[in-house]
Amino acid sequence: MLGPVLLAASRSDAIRRIVSAAPVTRPMVDRFVAGELLEPTMSVIRGLTERGLDVTMDFLGEDITDPAEALRNRDAYLALTEELAPLGLGARTEMSVKLSAFGQALPGGHDLALANVTPVVEAAAEAGMNVALDMEDHTTTDSTLAILSELRKKYPSTGAVVQSYLFRTEEDCHALATEGSRVRLVKGAYKEPSDVAFQDKREVDKAYVRCLKILMAGDGYPMIGSHDPRLVAIAQELGRRHGRKLDEYEFQMLFGIRVAEQERLLAEGHRMRIYVPYGTDWYGYFMRRLAERPANMTFFLRSLVSRG
């Protein structure tokens, strides 16, 4: 299986250098990443929102090693807020943040990440926007949920992300499915050990449905992060079963993936939000997207070998 290999490669500096230098890489990256700089990325955002799609923005910069990098990431999100606010789209635009980009893995990282992300959440709230805390590997889950709890005391619309492949996630969904909460459910895209996460795709999917049932039956606002047609259909059925109006939950898909399905759901009256990453530190995100989609992964590796 090439998927686990690419997940491991997403953290390799040596492979990063090879992939970044390959001529075939840039066109593939452009499919999944809106841009490296803010100005062209804003053009993408305007195009999406003019078509009726909502967006969530992710500035790529995880796994930092220096507190100064955490401050740069904080400032990048503050600059993004300044650019998004004049669009007047309110909650149709939001920001997704990885707390590792704010220093979570550094010494004293929990407090450092909270201190750095708080001004971003404050600025977003002033602009009428929301922030969601992306979930990373399982070692950060407790810290991320604790920071979420702290932020929600003042900013209750701060969103959470949960990953169905973790054994613990059903319990987390029960705790999070409360009035006013916003929860994005995804399958998970990190290499996790078998003692904390399901390894078989079918088990991950089953867990996704169990978690989705909890969120749809709860009092919060579910955000279905999936491109799987079967899971999308199940979410629609659960929405009907629980009497949810179409604006009482939403679908989320990645920029550049299943565009026709995005348009179909939008045309049916669903809220459809596009996860739009941008920035120069695209490598880890790009490799995880390849690992999730075998067709893209095979095409890219064949092209890489032939160009080499």
Q: N-to-C terminal Cα separation, in Å? A: 22 Å
Strand order in the largest sheet: 1-2-3-4-5-6-7-8
Number of strands: 8
Structural class: alpha/beta
Number of helices: 13
Beta-strand portion reads 5-15%
Q: What's the helical proportion of residues?
A: 40-55%
What integer value in Å does the Rg equal?
18 Å
SSE succession: HHHHEHEHEHEHEHEHEHEHH
Report the average pLDDT across residues. 89
Regions with little confidence, pLDDT below 50 for 5+ residues: none
- Name the overall outline: globular
Task: Report the sheet with the most strands, covering strand number, pairing sense and barrel closure.
Answer: 8 strands, parallel, barrel
Structural features, described:
The structure is a single chain. This protein has helices at residues 2-9, 13-21, 25-32, 38-50, 67-84, 109-126, 141-152, 169-176, 201-217, 229-241, 259-267, 283-292, 294-307; strands spanning 54-59, 93-98, 130-134, 159-163, 182-186, 221-225, 250-254, 271-278. The chain has 308 residues and is of the alpha/beta class. Helix 9 (201-217) links the parallel strand 5 and strand 6 (221-225). It is globular.
Helices, strands, pairings?
Blueprint: H1 2-9, H2 13-21, H3 25-32, H4 38-50, E1 54-59, H5 67-84, E2 93-98, H6 109-126, E3 130-134, H7 141-152, E4 159-163, H8 169-176, E5 182-186, H9 201-217, E6 221-225, H10 229-241, E7 250-254, H11 259-267, E8 271-278, H12 283-292, H13 294-307
Parallel strand pairs: 1-2, 1-8, 2-3, 3-4, 4-5, 5-6, 6-7, 7-8
